[in-house]
Design brief:
This protein is mainly alpha-helical and 158 residues long. It has helices spanning 14-33, 39-46, 50-53, 55-77, 80-100, 104-132, 138-155, and strands spanning 4-7, 10-13. The chain is elongated.
């Protein structure tokens, strides 16, 4: 029973819960740098300059950085579970918009929406990991999170 957690009266597998959180985090972190290899093709496709295309990455990181501290305020007002689900749906909506983008502006908007979802999800993942692990195991949980934070951009396309 040590691998089980109880949330709102329901029992879940801690391993499955952590794995789900870490997969979401992996996707969020991977998206920080994934555009680097596509930039030359996107510059040609949308007829934009290097300075303009860089906003796909710069804007993503900027919005993500803005959303991280706002997440603390959001968690005081909304249920963490539903906020996390919303953040992942926001990320997916941004991904879909980026995929379907007919123009650079639409692609940038999609990336910024992705970043908003990612910026909410990352601190929520840490919050949930702290909530489901006892104090003596929280360091190991943060270590797993650190591995994902470092691994995703490292193995992504560059």
């Amino acid at each position: 029973m040590k691998n089980r957690i109880v949330v709102n009266g329901q029992t879940f597998s801690r391993t499955l819960f952590v794995l789900t959180l870490l997969i979401g985090t992996f996707c969020d972190m991977l998206n920080q740098t994934v555009m680097a290899v596509a930039q030359p093709k996107l510059m040609s496709t949308f007829s934009v300059s290097t300075a303009t295309i860089q906003w796909l990455t710069t804007g993503f990181l900027l919005v993500m950085g803005i959303m991280v501290p706002i997440t603390g305020w959001l968690t005081d007002r909304f249920n963490v579970k539903w906020l996390y689900i919303f953040s992942q749906l926001l990320f997916l909506a941004g991904t879909f918009l980026s995929f379907m983008a007919p123009s650079f502006g639409a692609l940038l908007a999609g990336r910024l929406i992705q970043a908003a979802g990612s910026g909410i999800a990352s601190p929520l993942t840490m919050t949930m990991l702290f909530a489901i692990f006892p104090p003596e195991k929280q360091g190991a949980a943060m270590g797993l999170m650190g591995i994902v934070f470092g691994l995703a951009p490292a193995i992504g396309p560059t």
